[in-house]
Amino acid sequence: MSYEKDGINQIEVEELEKLVNEERDNKILIDVREVEEYDQFHIPGVPLIPMNQIPQLFEKMDKEKDYVFICRSGARSQNVALFLKDNGFNHVHNYAGGMLAWQGETAEGPEWIVKDIKEIY
């Protein structure tokens, strides 16, 4: 069951598992951890945009899309969601548990490190 924190919708593990396992045209999942963390383990098919790159890329992001941000514990992804909300994005969500709570399938290596924001659309 999702809830709200500081104006950001918080998604819990069960809801994220559902999103990962179904077609999600309406929600874009983005991992915001560092490359080294992503390489160790990540959710298959979820692209990486490290948190420190969001300020350079957000102006090219589609404000009409729904975004779910993922990090290690839910703190960095919450900050990314807050930053984007402050910059006019109304459809941002945080995965509250972070990868620490993730029990689903994981992959290793640099599967999808975003170089150009157009890759996620």
UniProtKB/TrEMBL annotation:
<dbReference type="InterPro" id="IPR001763">
    <property type="entry name" value="Rhodanese-like_dom"/>
</dbReference>
<dbReference type="InterPro" id="IPR036873">
    <property type="entry name" value="Rhodanese-like_dom_sf"/>
</dbReference>
<keyword id="KW-0808">Transferase</keyword>
<dbReference type="GO" id="GO:0016740">
    <property type="term" value="F:transferase activity"/>
</dbReference>
<dbReference type="Pfam" id="PF00581">
    <property type="entry name" value="Rhodanese"/>
</dbReference>
<feature type="domain" description="Rhodanese">
    <location>
        <begin position="23"/>
        <end position="107"/>
    </location>
</feature>
<dbReference type="InterPro" id="IPR050229">
    <property type="entry name" value="GlpE_sulfurtransferase"/>
</dbReference>
<protein>
    <submittedName>
        <fullName>Sulfurtransferase</fullName>
    </submittedName>
</protein>
